[in-house]
Design a protein that fits this description.
Creatine Amidinohydrolase, Chain A, domain 1; Creatine Amidinohydrolase; 2 domains; six-stranded mixed β-sheet; three-stranded antiparallel β-sheet; 13 helices; 19 strands; binds manganese (II) ion
């Protein structure tokens, strides 16, 4: 298959695993994402739905994947745009049902224009229906016209499968990790006092594009006080020579994300205060990575990072309270004023991948071999916040360090380890390309 990295048989295996877990005589319907309008008749770059990618790697809009297990036999069908020379002259080649059947991992293919008819017939034959609703309201409406029983959600099964990465998925994520690592090193090497945040963003995105990759989310490039804003995204200020810059940027390879954060002084030299905070966050990060062990509860990574940070904040005189008050009964003590997010999340086809963790406040899973998580503690001392008081020298400092970690029986494997993070390494790289 020219356009997929995993083999056809791996995709069929995923389809079979899903169909063996759900009820017999079921039809599963996975609509692809709709294109998003940017303005008038221009669109945002298209991104296929992650479940569609996981089960078939199909990347054209206006398409639906169905999988049946009627009489215990798998039958997967891609319903896709038909060929249309007139349209193709303007918008590019369309693969069409014939191309889909030859090169994609499905048993059948149809024109999406016949989808309503297909459903009318097939839904009579099936006893259960699984649909991911909300992806494409048009498809939801069509389904509801022909089905008056319960609509079941296949994601419970799919999410569990997606949490454990296969060897081919791990290969793609290694590639995404190394491209993003190189991008961060390049951005460090061109940094200089006064550089625009957008210049760092441009350097990173240019590297992604050169590697035939793309952002897995909008890069965060925040200098000085902007580094204390967790989802800062305007990337529009110049960075003062004495300031740190926090860069949170990752890329996507065949849909699979990397997610890296590094923080460095644009001058190439950490001040004493910056160094103290940086070293503390780095110790917290290393301790959380060490907690990435098979069989560990998800909370252990967050606890490991939190304990180091709470103690360090007392040692630096930023928190003037007992360790018990700093850490809190439920990891909710005073240290949360400066570390207000989770320590990590699942990573995969979605940058905040399925499977729990700190998303939505759900209890995280027990770590298993083949999971990939991010570890990303940070400390933020916004000078504009009037609800905190910190020694003047720390004011305006924000530091986060984030790596992508594969859980294995032999311990954590840091997929982003080629991205430097010690103070010595960073100081020697910053500005080296100028
Ligand atoms: Mn992240």
């Amino acid at each position: 298959m020219e356009d997929t990295i995993a083999s056809k048989s791996e995709y069929f295996h995923r389809q079979d695993r899903l169909m063996s877990r759900i009820l017999p005589n079921s039809l599963v319907i996975i609509p692809n994402n709709r294109p998003s309008i940017r303005s008038n008749d221009t669109k945002y770059p298209y991104r296929a739905n992650s479940y569609m990618l996981y089960l078939s790697d199909w990347q054209e809009p206006n398409s639906v994947l169905t999988i049946s297990n009627l009489n215990a036999a798998r039958e997967s069908t891609l319903h896709v745009k038909p060929r249309d020379t007139e349209k193709e002259i303007w918008e590019g080649r369309i693969i069409g049902p014939d191309g889909a059947l030859i090169n994609w991992p499905v048993d059948k293919s149809n024109s999406i224009l016949d989808f309503e008819n297909y459903l009318k017939i097939e839904l009579k034959n099936h006893s259960n229906l699984y649909l991911i609703t909300g992806i494409n309201p048009e498809i939801d409406d069509i389904v509801q016209n022909f089905w008056n029983k319960d609509i079941l959600d296949p994601r419970i099964y799919l999410d569990e499968m997606r949490m454990i990465k296969s060897l081919s998925e791990i290969e793609l994520m290694k590639r995404a990790s190394s491209i993003a690592s190189e991008a961060h090193v390049k951005a460090m090497s061109i940094s200089r006092p006064g550089i625009g945040e957008w210049e760092i963003q441009a350097s990173i995105e240019s590297h992604f594009t050169m590697c035939r990759s793309t952002n897995s989310y909008n890069p965060i490039v925040g200098g000085g006080d902007n580094s204390t804003i967790l989802h800062y995204s305007s990337n529009s200020d110049n960075i003062r020579g004495t300031d740190l810059v926090l860069v949170d940027a990752g890329c996507e390879v065949n849909g699979y994300a990397s997610d890296i954060t590094r923080t460095w002084p644009v001058s190439g030299m950490f001040s004493e205060a910056q160094r103290e905070i940086y070293e503390l966050v780095l110790r917290a990060e290393l301790s959380a990575i060490e907690a990435c062990q098979v069989g560990s509860p998800w909370e252990n990574m967050h606890r490991a990072a939190s304990e180091v940070l709470a103690r360090g904040l007392i040692d630096l005189g930023i928190l003037q309270c007992s360790y018990e008050d700093a850490i809190g009964d439920n990891l909710d003590g005073d240290y949360r004023k400066f570390f207000m997010h989770g320590t990590g999340h699942m990573l995969g086809l979605d940058v905040h991948d399925v499977g729990g963790g700190r998303q939505g406040g759900k209890k995280g899973p027990i770590l298993k071999s083949g999971m990939i998580v991010t570890i990303e503690p940070g400390l933020y001392f916004a000078s504009w916040r009037d609800d905190i008081s910190v020694p003047e020298k720390y004011s305006g400092i924000g530091v986060r360090i984030e790596d992508d970690v594969l859980i294995t029986e032999d311990g954590p494997v840091v997929l982003t380890e080629m991205c430097p993070k010690t103070i010595d390494e960073i100081e020697s790289i910053v500005g080296s390309a100028l």
